Amino acid sequence: MSHILTISNLTKKYGSLTAVDNLSFTIEKGNVYGILGPNGSGKSTTLGIVLNVVNKTEGHFHWFDGNTSTHDALKKVGAIIEHPNFYPYMTAVQNLQLVCKIKQVTEERISEKLELVGLLDRKDSKFSSFSLGMKQRLAIASALLNNPEILILDEPTNGLDPQGIHQIREIIKKIASQGTTILLASHLLDEVEKVCSHVVILRKGVSLYSGLVDGMNASHGFLTMQSNDMEALKQALEQNPAFGSFKRQGEYLIAYLKQPMDPSEVNEFLFQKGIVLSHFVKRKESLEEQFLELTKQK
Ligand SMILES: Nc1ncnc2c1ncn2[C@@H]1O[C@H](COP(=O)(O)OP(=O)(O)OP(=O)(O)O)[C@@H](O)[C@H]1O
């Protein structure tokens, strides 16, 4: 698989504040990556550094094989990191023609890109008449005019209504299905889960998890239990290496698994110890619960 972007031990400091802290990850061709983290976790700063608009303090990054200068590499990158900015009195197509002139790319792709973002029938409408969602879609069309290898988006659905959000996500998925690599920053777990194949979770500039979105949900779950003798129940479970930690919640004991264990095995194990359960539920933390746990302030 070919590398699109390699980030190694990247750090950005603003005075005493470390916005990005020793961050490393690699972007491979054809995948959809999310940088996920709460506000202020360093997502925009990371994108700014690799797009050469923010200076790094330490570490390295290189585009593609490492033999291309960042200046040349960025010609193969499409990015939207600020609010879409076009001339309000010009039409969609006129704005894109201007972008083609600035980027020195052919105007032939304008219709194709407008079609892709669902704006071909509005190509002659003035930008000022567009909704926020349409403006964002025009920005995506604009970023694609140079047929980039990778499309970078910072919070692409911020401020949009549910329909606008859905449209943007569908467009991102369509662009990805056509082979364009995507890197998007988002504070929305739901967005990353719906759109991305890979994720880097940031908290205060530090990477907490990097890998497949599916791999995020690697927890083995927990069991909520009740018996006549809660102390005996806890003591018995503590002897079993499958359990990592315990929490008392009202009249229930919650036992967190650190390795897979079938509920029937747990039941049998306890029964052999003479413990009969009056309540027994096995559940897995939702991805949201795990994300909040991971990113909560320590
Ligand atoms: N130009 C700057 N000068 C000083 N501090 C900055 C500057 N830009 C960002 N920061 C700080 O760096 C940290 C990371 O900010 P960044 O914008 O990268 O986070 P983010 O995850 O993109 O959050 P958001 O979604 O709120 O933009 C924050 O604490 C922010 O206040």
Q: Outline of this structure?
A:
This protein has ten helices and 13 strands. The protein has 298 residues and is of the alpha/beta class.
- Main sheet: strands, sense, barrel: 6 strands, mixed
- SSE run: EEEHEHEHHHEHEHEEEHEEHEH
In DSSP terms (H or I, runs of 4 or more residues), the helix count works out at: 10
Spatial strand arrangement across the major sheet: 5-6-7-3-8-9
**Count of domains:** 2
Give the second-level CATH assignment, the architecture of the largest domain.
3-Layer(aba) Sandwich
Report the principal-axis shape.
Answer: elongated
Using only C-alpha atoms, the radius of gyration works out to 24 Å
Mean of residue pLDDT values: 91
Low-confidence stretches: none
Let me know the number of strands: 13
Assign the CATH topology of the largest domain. Rossmann fold
Residues in helices, as a percent range = 25-40%
- In percent, how much strand structure appears in the residues? 25-35%
Structural class: alpha/beta
Oligomer: single chain
CATH superfamily of the largest domain: P-loop containing nucleotide triphosphate hydrolases
Q: In whole angstroms, how far apart are the ends?
A: 37 Å
Ligands, deduplicated: adenosine-5'-triphosphate
